[in-house]
From TrEMBL:
GO molecular function: glycosyltransferase activity
Bilayer topology annotation: Multi-pass membrane protein
InterPro entries linked: Glyco_trans_2-like, Glycosyltransferase_2, Nucleotide-diphossugar_trans
Protein name: Glycosyltransferase family 2 protein
Pfam families named in the record: Glycos_transf_2 (PF00535)
Location (main, coarse): membrane
A Gene Ontology cellular-component term: plasma membrane
Glycosyltransferase 2-like domain residues: 9-176
Transmembrane segments: 239-260, 272-296
Keywords, comma-separated and alphabetical: Glycosyltransferase, Membrane, Transferase, Transmembrane, Transmembrane helix
């Protein structure tokens, strides 16, 4: 097939020395099979992005590149988190690739779904979302919280693909579209649907982590979810406004009631109700301030517009 298209698979890696040998073996096999089938050009690459790991991750990546030009590497100047590392990889790969697939390093994303994604690209789709068909290997807690999160996002009016994480294919023009989104608070799975262009989904089964442990403990997961919501929805602020109005109306009614009972001479020392309302209103005020503060913090970060990543070195031929 002439006029073959070049595929880059971008893999962010944070302390992944335990999985990289196996990941690179499987991805190498997959790439060679696709090349042999004439679906991708032989300029295609697997691009590992080292997100400031303190272990041997970068040495392994550099070694892979040394042995086999199929593997390339990007080294970030320090740890910037999954989303930023992924963005760094996408923005580097877009200089060479016609289509880019992003994938986790731990082989939880089924490598075999790559074929269907590449086929969808050739069929004219610009974005192909990998969607988990089952969460058999997830714990009940993870499944419950993750699926609840997608539902909550949708209820808050955020355009997001259900059960899609960051395993997806994007065409070059889709990644170029992404490069026009300058936000610092990155929540890629919320941004990508906003780029537009024809899209489709490919189902895959999410496997267990091949080795090593999750780099997303509950605390990071919650802050990621909260970021996702506050970066894409202002409904929480509206909710605060609504709660405030309800309380305002309620307090006027209470005032009238207090005045009437005073006039009728039946005013008791209403210590209980007084304390209760002070605490409740105080609590709601603090909560509301917190939510508003979160948005102001976001504005602050965006206003500074600091670089989202700094690349120390690129290994690519
Ligand atoms: N990752 C990263 N930087 C970080 C944390 C994670 O590049 O600060 C990468 C990690 O190496 C992996 C992907 O992001 O390729 C997803 O992380 P992980 O598998 O630990 O998350 P989980 O699947 O448990 O949600
Ligand atoms: Mg994982």
């Amino acid at each position: 097939m002439k006029d073959e298209k070049t595929l880059y698979i971008v893999v962010p890696c944070y302390k992944e020395e335990a999985v990289l040998p196996e990941t690179s073996r499987r991805l190498g096999e997959k790439m060679r099979a696709l090349m042999a089938a004439g679906k991708i050009s032989d300029k295609s690459r697997v691009m590992f992005v080292n997100d400031g790991s303190k272990d041997r991750t970068w040495e392994i990546i550099a070694g892979l590149h040394e042995q086999d030009k199929l593997f390339s590497g990007v080294n970030l100047s320090r740890n910037r988190g999954h989303q930023n590392a992924l963005l760094a990889g996408l923005m580097t790969a877009v200089n060479y690739a016609d289509m880019i697939i992003s994938m986790d390093a731990d082989l939880q994303d089924d490598v075999n779904a790559v074929d269907a994604m590449v086929d969808a690209y050739h069929a004219g789709y610009d974005v192909v979302y990998g969607v988990r068909s089952a969460r058999k290997t997830d714990t009940f807690f993870k499944r419950f919280t993750a699926e609840g999160f997608y539902k909550l996002m949708q209820a808050l009016g955020v355009d997001i693909v259900f059960n899609h994480a960051d395993y997806r294919l994007m065409s070059r023009r889709a990644v170029e579209g992404l490069s026009q989104f300058k936000e610092v608070n990155l929540f890629l799975r919320g941004i990508v649907p906003q780029i537009g262009y024809p899209w489709t989904t490919v189902e895959y089964e999410r496997a267990e982590r091949f080795a090593g442990e999750s780099k997303y403990p509950l605390k990071k997961m919650l802050s990621f979810a909260f970021d996702g919501i506050t970066s894409f929805s202002i409904k929480p602020i509206r909710l605060i406004l609504a709660v405030g109005m309800v309380i305002f109306v309620a307090s006027i009614i209470a005032l009238v009631w207090a005045l009437i009972s005073k006039l009728m001479g039946s005013a008791q020392a209403g210590w209980t109700s007084l304390m209760a309302s002070i605490w409740m209103i105080g609590g709601i005020q603090l909560l509301s301030l917190g939510v508003i503060g979160e948005y102001i913090g976001k504005v602050y970060n965006e206003a500074k517009a600091r670089p989202r990543y700094i690349i120390e070195r690129v290994l690519n031929d």
